[in-house]
UniProtKB/TrEMBL annotation, chains A, B:
Superkingdom of this protein's organism: Eukaryota
Residue ranges constituting the EF-hand domain according to the UniProt record: 55-90
Alphabetical UniProt keywords: Acetylation, Calcium, Cytoplasm, Disulfide bond, Metal-binding, Nucleus, Phosphoprotein, Repeat
Name the UniProt record assigns to this protein: Protein S100
Pfam families: EF-hand_1, S_100
Record carries keyword Zinc: no
Subunit note: Homodimer; disulfide-linked.
GO BP, sorted A to Z: regulation of cell population proliferation
Organism per entry: Propithecus coquereli
Length: 105, 105
């Protein structure tokens, strides 16, 4: 039998992203996409540190519209990953700016 | 003092992706991008389950070229995330096909 080694950090991340998406996408009967309600539930639970500081009540509506590239009123997994990627890039830029305050990056 | 709650699964993923990128991007003196050598090191360590099954020795070369959207011979964090996103979408599609073998998705 082939030995199954423990997953790497990157493999764990990929598994987690799929699991989190499935957790929220599966709240209604269709687990391939996030509906607006599921998106709000995801944002207010998983990214509450971001949403609770938003004073503008329309920000999540606008985010959903911007992320919904094919305008079907739902977010598929690729559209969801674009959200995660956008946040990750913003965090990474802040990290680099904090690490190299003199450099323009 | 404000209470710092433990990170959510999504926040942990974002932190991990930045940490993994920084780990490999920081192997030379420039930690903003993955050089070709750093990309190969990342692929052969973090995604070894994928690379060890590749019989074509040129596959990583071609992946690097395809991911390097601005053709500077380096992968920045966004280009790195496109790789992770591509793998995650492929895994998610397999998951949905296995869960719903009759449906076309």
């Amino acid at each position: 039998m082939a030995k199954i080694s423990s997953p790497t950090e990157t493999e764990r991340c990929i598994e987690s992203l799929i699991a989190v998406f499935q957790k929220y996408a599966g709240k209604d009967n269709y687990n391939c996409t996030l509906s607006k309600t599921e998106f709000l539930s995801f944002m207010n639970t998983e990214l509450a540190a971001f949403t609770k500081n938003q004073k503008d009540p329309g920000v999540l509506d606008r985010m959903m519209k911007k992320l919904d590239l094919n305008c079907d009123g739902q977010l598929d997994f690729q559209e969801f990953l674009n959200l995660i990627g956008g946040i990750a890039v913003a965090c990474h830029d802040s990290f680099l700016k904090a690490a190299h305050p003199q450099k323009r990056i």
